[in-house]
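STRUCTURE:
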């Protein structure tokens, strides 16, 4: 086989044409990069963000690049909004989802003695509960696709202490989430 043929077939195995993905928190940081990478490989993406103007700016940017990306405003700390998000994804992708990327997370640097009960609830609902619940909601869609994948954007802080104990505890829980 010619060298060009080898390179072509090697590149094709990474293509995601026909695949669908939901990336939470896709308007900033790592989530934004994941949306761009998956879309660049040919996947059709739906993403969410808390801030509509930022989301709309990203959607316009991706449209100009020729990416197939839609989005909706969603605060993943809200069970109702997560359910609405998954309903939207199910409708857009005909009841099938190939990739769920649980990217959303929060981190505030604060001393452990300064953490309030409200901080604990916010961290748990954002970094753990939202990802866990979205996995539950996505399970039928992932199963229907015949090729479902879940990615957790966790942190080394979940397994090694790096002076952000609450963040580490809530991100570390993601290492133990899986579907049967």
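SEQUENCE:
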């Amino acid at each position: 086989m010619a060298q060009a043929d080898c390179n072509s077939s090697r590149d094709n195995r990474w293509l995601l044409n026909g695949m669908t993905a939901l990336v939470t928190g896709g308007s900033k940081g790592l989530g934004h990069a994941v949306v761009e990478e998956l879309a660049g490989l040919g996947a059709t993406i739906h993403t969410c963000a808390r801030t509509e103007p930022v989301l709309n700016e990203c959607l316009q940017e991706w449209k100009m690049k020729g990416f197939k990306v839609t989005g909706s405003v969603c605060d993943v700390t809200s069970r109702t909004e997560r359910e609405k998000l998954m309903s939207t994804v199910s409708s857009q992708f005909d009841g099938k989802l190939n990739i769920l990327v649980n990217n959303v997370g929060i981190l505030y640097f604060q001393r452990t003695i300064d953490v309030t009960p409200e901080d604990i609830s916010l961290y748990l609902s954002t970094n753990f509960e939202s990802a866990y619940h979205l996995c539950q909601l996505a399970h039928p869609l992932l199963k229907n696709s015949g090729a479902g994948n879940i990615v957790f954007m966790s942190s080394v802080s979940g397994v090694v202490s790096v002076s952000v104990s609450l963040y580490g505890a809530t991100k570390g829980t993601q290492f133990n989430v899986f579907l049967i």
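REMARK: Confidence is low (pLDDT under 50) at residues 1-7.
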